[in-house]
Design brief:
heterodimer, A: 110 residues, six-stranded mixed β-sheet, five-stranded antiparallel β-sheet, globular, B: 114 residues, mainly beta, seven-stranded mixed β-sheet, 0% helix
């Protein structure tokens, strides 16, 4: 079992819609959770971090964490074509290791 | 701040040659990570350093790979001898406050081994 699992997609949504990206993790001791965005040919860029259960909002982005279900998600409201990218979920393990999922490819259709 | 700086941005070499990738972390950051990214395997952690000391190198594929961090502002990842299967994008990332655990990535080095 991989430490972090994501649906690889591709996920396609129309412009203006809500994009929902999901991630599950295996280490119950994980404390830190991140969403990175990676445009094709570029490096991963941090867009959200979350450390406690519940929702965290930043502009059009909302991260949701449920430690009991070992589940973290990212919602993108009012999706724009510029949001088209691969989204990587990252989790720190009990020993402070850093694990990335394989990423979900998102395409926002104008 | 200039961010994490990697060099070269692109490297093309022939099988059997030595390759050295370089990284300068963000000033003041005390942790440095080397990753490899391929389409097949995604982003894989190769090794990470804390205060210039290697902490976990379990991701280093084999003895052909070695990494050093002689001081807080510089690290190298060396492949000797290189093989075509080493072709990938290699990222360096640095982290500041451990409690926040946020990593910042460099632009990466695209390595092609012919």
């Amino acid at each position: 079992q991989k430490e972090v699992e994501q649906n690889s997609g591709p996920l396609s949504v129309p412009e203006g819609a809500i994009a929902s990206l999901n991630c599950t993790y295996s280490d119950r001791g994980s404390q830190s959770f991140f969403w990175y965005r990676q445009y094709s040919g570029k490096s991963p860029e941090l867009i959200m971090s979350i450390y406690s259960n519940g929702d965290k909002e930043d502009g059009r982005f909302t991260a949701q964490l449920n430690k009991a279900s070992q589940y973290v998600s990212l919602l993108i409201r009012d999706s724009q074509p510029s949001d088209s990218a691969t989204y990587l979920c990252a989790v720190t393990g009990t020993g402070n290791q850093f694990y990335f999922g394989t990423g979900t490819s998102l395409t926002v259709i104008p | 701040d200039a961010g994490v700086i990697q060099s070269p941005r692109h490297e093309v070499t022939e099988m059997g040659q030595e390759v050295t990738l370089r990284c300068k972390p963000i000033s003041g950051h005390n942790s440095l990570f080397w990753y490899r990214q391929t389409m097949m395997r995604g982003l894989e952690l190769l090794i990470y350093f804390n205060n210039n000391v290697p902490i976990d190198d379990s991701g280093m594929p084999e003895d052909r790979f070695s990494a050093k961090m002689p001081n807080a502002s510089f690290s190298t990842l060396k492949i000797q001898p290189s093989e075509p299967r080493d072709s990938a994008v290699y990222f360096c990332a640095s982290r500041g406050q451990a409690v926040l655990n946020i990593q910042y990535f460099g632009a990466g080095t695209r390595l092609s081994v012919l």
